[in-house]
Every structure is written in structure tokens, then in C-alpha cells.
């Protein structure tokens, strides 16, 4: 094997034995100085490795800005209004939201949360970043409630972890974050669930078995899959969620996504809201499909190799199991993304863009071109075979 990440993984396997896939993915994606996201991997149209809704153009952010206004009004127009974007990447969504000039801007305190230090360094290139002490609302010494703070918003800051401000009702946004959280992998064999772990090229220890299914993709050099019986707690969960699996069926176990949801709900507070937009489905649906349909790798805008190849050099994503998130708390709203975008006015924004283009086409300035681009952006965002098929999951108090 070559590469810093592969060497780290091999060393752990040699020291501790075959490792859970979640541990391998944690290193491959997030290891400081070596993981994919800390080593330059990012979303982006030209230089990125994959394209997310905010990277299609500013239209997506303009729709999110409308949603933020709607939730702000539902909450009684609080000032300060705390919005936390988890998995903010390079800050593209935040920039588009600011450019849309939402009505809540004067009250807005916006926190970009990104665990990759390389990505966080890019935030200040896209939006004005302040010290956290200026952005996070201070608390009244007597009541413990947040108090307004001058200057007026919008104020933005950048953190590595979700903040907690007691007494504050917060909106937590996560666009295509949950699919990137590490997960474990289970395989059905001989009528029981087994865990697929990652081993190195040495003889198998007692109790380990070579995994039966490779799903047509080679593994990384020197790495291989082995299976061990799955513990009773997780096996019982899969038995409930996937009642009649075929032998050889595989399904992810997304404990990290569940833990993230618990933390996000705590951050949202008593009257807040958690909103996650991602490609999502059910555990049973994934168990019925080939693994390489729901576990994908990307590099330079193309599907890359097997999930254990080129560790640290390619993105690894997995569709989100909504039923597993529901064991933490069922979403209060679950709809496909194209419906969610229409709910918050994407069609009106497109019509506005068409009118602006008609009025300014003879000028041909940047404002006219941006207005015209809304049509093509909307086509991509609403595509039922693409981004439009993503799910918008909401947890509201």
C-alpha cells in the first residue's frame, strides 16, 4: 500500500486486528493532514471532486435564505437569530445566503461548522468571519437567556464543532453532510448478520471469515474484507429494519449519523429546528440493491474506485438511512428536495430571473447573466433523477 492514510490504517490493523469500516473511513476522510477533506478534497464546479446543490449556483442559497426567513417568522422574529450550518465545506452556501439579502439579516448570527481545518481556512475567502465571541449571543447573567448584541447582523463565524448556547432556539442546517459521516457495514450470511471489517494481508485469526461479496470492485492493495458475527444490539436493529434480507445482502450501520442528530437536536434547543438535505432512503432498500449503488466514491467529478482504494485520495459517501435516524427521533417532515425547493419559492425566483433577463438582456452585464442562469440552475436542482431526488428531512420542536 502507498500513501499516509493507507499506512496509518495498516499500522492499526497490525496492532489491533481487523478494524470496523467506520474507523477506516474516519482516517480516510478526516485524519488531520492526511484525510481526504484535510488534504484538498472539496465540492466545486471546476476544481472540486463533486458537485453539491450550493455549487450549482447561487439559486439554492437564495431558496435557503427564504426558508430561513420563514422559520425566523415562525419563531417570533428573534434577535439574535442563530443559524448553524454543519458541514459548511468551503463556505459556498453561506455566501449565497448572504448575497440573497434575507429579511432576517439584521438579526442573523451565522455559524459555519466544519471539522476540516483546510476547509475552515477557506471561509474567510468567501464571507466576512468574526471572532466567535462577537457572533454567539451573550447570556444575561440573571436569567441565562441570550441578549441582543451590537453591531447588527449579519455576523458570521467559523467553528470546528457544533456550538451550544443555552436558552437559544437555533436552526441547524446540514447539506450533504450525513452521507459523509463514517459508517459500519453489515452482511447477511447463513441466516444471521455479520459485520464486515477491514483486514490486512496476513492469515486470518480464529473466528474471522473472508467476506463473500466484493460487489465487483477490487479492494485496496493489501487490504481485504473479513466478517465477524454482529453484536446482538445492532443485529436486532437490522432485523427490525430489514425483516427479510437475502443471503449476501449488505447494509450500512450509521451510528455516527445518529450521534450527529442527537447533538444537532441539543444545539437546536427547545424551539429550534434541524434540517438535513441529502440523498437518503431506507435500510431495507439498500439491502435489496447492489452495494455500489448506495456506497459511492468520487474524485475530480467522476466515480472513483473501490471504497478501500486510494484511501485519503477520494471521497466516500453513503446514502442516508432515514429509518436509522428515526430511532433517535422521527423527522417531523420528510419530502423530496424538489418539493422542498418549491415550498420555499424556487419557481418565483426563477420567474424573477426571467423578468430581469428580459429587461437587461440588451445590457448583458453580470446581473443579467446571473438572472438568466437561474433557469439552468433550477433545472439541475429540480431534476428528479438527480439533485431533485434528494430528501429534505426536518426535525422541528
Written overview of the protein:
With 397 residues, the chain is of the alpha/beta class. It has three domains: 99 residues, no CATH class; 220 residues, 3-Layer(aba) Sandwich (Rossmann fold); 40 residues, no CATH class. It contains 16 helices and 18 strands. A seven-stranded mixed beta sheet has the order 4-3-2-5-11-18-17, sandwiched between helices. Strands 1, 6, 7, 8, 9 and 10 form a six-stranded antiparallel beta sheet that branches. A three-stranded antiparallel beta sheet has the order 14-13-15. About 4% of the residues have low confidence.
- The number of helices is 16
Structural class: alpha/beta
The overall number of domains is 3
Give the overall silhouette.
Answer: globular
CATH class of the largest domain: Alpha Beta
CATH topology of the largest domain: Rossmann fold
- The CATH architecture name of the largest domain reads 3-Layer(aba) Sandwich
Any idea what the radius of gyration is?
A: 22 Å
Give the CA-CA distance, first to last residue: 49 Å
Content of β-strand? 15-25%
- Oligomer class: single chain
Strand order of the largest sheet: 4-3-2-5-11-18-17
What are the low-pLDDT stretches, counting only 5+ consecutive residues below 50? 43-50, 212-218
Amino acid at each position: 500500500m502507498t500513501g499516509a492514510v493507507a499506512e496509518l490504517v495498516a499500522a492499526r490493523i497490525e496492532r489491533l486486528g481487523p478494524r470496523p469500516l467506520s474507523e477506516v473511513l474516519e482516517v480516510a476522510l478526516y485524519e488531520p493532514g492526511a484525510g481526504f477533506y484535510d488534504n484538498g478534497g472539496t465540492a466545486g464546479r471546476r476544481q472540486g471532486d463533486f458537485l453539491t446543490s450550493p455549487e450549482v449556483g447561487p439559486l439554492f442559497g437564495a431558496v435557503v435564505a427564504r426558508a430561513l426567513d420563514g422559520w425566523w417568522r415562525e419563531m417570533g422574529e428573534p434577535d439574535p437569530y442563530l443559524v448553524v450550518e454543519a458541514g459548511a465545506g468551503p463556505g459556498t452556501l453561506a455566501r449565497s445566503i448572504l448575497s440573497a439579502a434575507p429579511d432576517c439579516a439584521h438579526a442573523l448570527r451565522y455559524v459555519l461548522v466544519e471539522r476540516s481545518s483546510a476547509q475552515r481556512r477557506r471561509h474567510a475567502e468567501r464571507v466576512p468571519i468574526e471572532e466567535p465571541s462577537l457572533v454567539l449571543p451573550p447570556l444575561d447573567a440573571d436569567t441565562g437567556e441570550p441578549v441582543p448584541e451590537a453591531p447588527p447582523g449579519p455576523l458570521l463565524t467559523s467553528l470546528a464543532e457544533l456550538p451550544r448556547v443555552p436558552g437559544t432556539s437555533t436552526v441547524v442546517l446540514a447539506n450533504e453532510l450525513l452521507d459523509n459521516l463514517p459508517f459500519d457495514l453489515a452482511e447477511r450470511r447463513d441466516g444471521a448478520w455479520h459485520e464486515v471489517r477491514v483486514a490486512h494481508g496476513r492469515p486470518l485469526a480464529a473466528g474471522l471469515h473472508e467476506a463473500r461479496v466484493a460487489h465487483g470492485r477490487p479492494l485496496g492493495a493489501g487490504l481485504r474484507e473479513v466478517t465477524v458475527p454482529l453484536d446482538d444490539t445492532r443485529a436486532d436493529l437490522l432485523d427490525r429494519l430489514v425483516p427479510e434480507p437475502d443471503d449476501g445482502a449488505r447494509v450500512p450501520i450509521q451510528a455516527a449519523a445518529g450521534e450527529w442528530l442527537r447533538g444537532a437536536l441539543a444545539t437546536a434547543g427547545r424551539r429550534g429546528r434541524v434540517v438535513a438535505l441529502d440523498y437518503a432512503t431506507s435500510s431495507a432498500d439498500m439491502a435489496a440493491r447492489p452495494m455500489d449503488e448506495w456506497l459511492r466514491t468520487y474524485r475530480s467529478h467522476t466515480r472513483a474506485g473501490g471504497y478501500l482504494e486510494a484511501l485519503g485520495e477520494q471521497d466516500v459517501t453513503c446514502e442516508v438511512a432515514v429509518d436509522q435516524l428515526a430511532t433517535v427521533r422521527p423527522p417531523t417532515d420528510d419530502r423530496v428536495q424538489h418539493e422542498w425547493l418549491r415550498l420555499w419559492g424556487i419557481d418565483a425566483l426563477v420567474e424573477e430571473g426571467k423578468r430581469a433577463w428580459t429587461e437587461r438582456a440588451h445590457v448583458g452585464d453580470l446581473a443579467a447573466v446571473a438572472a438568466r442562469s437561474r433557469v439552468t440552475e433550477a433545472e439541475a436542482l429540480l431534476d428528479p433523477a438527480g439533485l431533485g431526488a434528494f430528501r429534505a428531512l426536518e426535525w422541528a420542536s
